[in-house]
Design a protein that fits this description.
mainly alpha; globular; Ammonium transporter fold
């Protein structure tokens, strides 16, 4: 039986718990942003992922992501893993994690499962207040199988993008870019809400969700080093400084535009900074993380402004925050990566500013491929789901609210 490092294992169990907490955090974040009559519906879309994604992960998802690799020819064309570990077949107490043999496989499996749970839940903010629950469950299933699991394998599971040398510390491509682009495709397919909805019924709920997300993000990013060392520490620090700088920049831009300092702008900016630093957290210096945070605040703020001008009904700005944040985070990684902060022997690489043009081009190619894949597959699966069951709720359900219309429940009791 391999030696299990209790410090690393305990740390990874803590990080797993932190990432798990992010999904309820997302539910609160999104719940506060919608109207009172649609709170439970969007929160349930996050919470149901905790149940159903876990089932899929146990049955086949973990194996599709991580069993086999392209180099040995034991996966499927470098795009998806094999099914050797379906139902966790063959995994025992003594099976070591492939990323760090001092951590049991079962801990690593649980940690990666939490990423799978939150990623499709991110998309739900885009089509808030207009998608049936049956269509969402079919979408959740198909999107994990056809988009999320393949990209985990391609980038993190020894697939073809990993062989190209693509880097993604904690999910710029694998989580934020593909979820944000899928959100954009969903908005364009599903169309606008028929009933005007001012939304934003509770900024305190949004603040609670942001706090839980920010807290959990330390497990998301620092945990992606899979051990406790100085790179873990720099990923932790980079996560905080990027979020903080982005939050302040967004606040200032919003203040300049609306003439008042808005709490919601501060909160949204923090999430944009967190999403953008994610792929680079363990590969760049803290000063570069500050710069990435500033760029995230500016670019994501204007991406949301562009969305508003184009009148896309991305209700909760998933594309502008997560899609654009993940996209530019991967490009910033290609620019600013430094082996001074993550040596080559531990998986680090130099970026374009340190003379590595190849790595920068590989990152550009990867983010272009992931964007196209997520967009096309999302449109295709929504079209197919429409053949089985209506995707969009009827207008009368929008009027009464999805909580009552779809679930027969209400978040708040009617006034006496």
């Amino acid at each position: 039986m391999p030696h299990i490092d209790t410090g690393n294992t305990g740390f990874m169990l803590l990080c797993t718990s932190l990432v798990m907490l992010m999904t309820p955090g997302l539910a609160f974040f999104y719940g506060g942003l919608v109207s009172r009559k649609n709170v439970l519906t969007i929160m349930m879309q996050s919470f149901v992922s905790m149940g159903w994604t876990t089932v899929l992960w146990f049955v086949c998802g973990f194996s599709m992501c991580f069993s086999g690799d392209h180099k040995s020819g034991t996966d499927f064309a470098g795009i998806i893993g094999n099914f050797d570990w379906a139902f966790l077949n063959g995994i025992t107490l003594s099976t070591p994690s492939p990323v760090n043999d001092t951590i049991p496989m079962i801990v690593w499996c649980a940690y990666q499962m939490m990423f799978a749970i939150i990623t499709p839940a991110l998309i739900t903010g885009a089509f808030a207040n207009r998608v049936t629950f049956k269509a969402y469950m079919l979408f959740l299933t198909a999107w994990l199988l056809l988009v999320y699991f393949p990209f985990v394998h391609m980038v993190w599971g020894g697939g073809i993008l990993a062989e190209w040398g693509v880097k993604d510390f904690a999910g710029g491509i694998v989580v934020h870019n593909i979820a944000g682009i899928a959100a954009l495709a969903s908005v364009l397919y599903v169309g606008k809400r028929r009933v005007s909805d001012k939304g934003l019924h509770s900024i305190p709920l949004v603040a609670l969700g942001t706090g839980l997300l920010w807290f959990g993000w330390y497990g998301f990013n620092a945990g992606s080093e899979f051990r406790v060392d100085s790179i873990t520490a720099v990923a932790f620090l980079n996560t905080d400084v990027a979020a903080s700088f982005a939050a302040v920049v967004w606040l200032l831009l919003d203040w300049g535009t609306s003439k008042k300092p808005k709490f919601l702008g501060l909160l949204t900016g923090a999430v944009a900074g967190l999403a953008t630093i994610t792929p680079a957290a363990g590969f760049v210096s803290p000063p570069m993380a500050c710069l990435i945070g500033i760029i995230a605040g500016v670019v994501c703020f204007y991406a949301v402004a562009l969305k508003n001008r184009l009148q896309w009904d991305d209700a909760l700005d998933v594309w502008g925050v997560h899609g654009v944040g993940g996209f530019i985070g991967i490009i910033m990684l290609g620019l600013f990566a430094s082996t001074a902060w993550n040596p080559a022997e531990t998986g680090g690489v130099d970026g374009l500013l340190r003379g590595n043009t190849h790595f920068f081009l590989v990152q550009l190619a990867a983010v272009a491929i992931s964007s196209a894949w997520a967009f096309i597959f999302t449109l295709g699966m929504l079209w197919l789901i429409e053949r089985v069951t209506p995707v969009k709720v009827p207008e009368d359900t929008e009027v009464v609210g999805l909580d009552e219309g779809l679930h027969g429940e209400q978040a708040y009791a009617a006034a006496p």
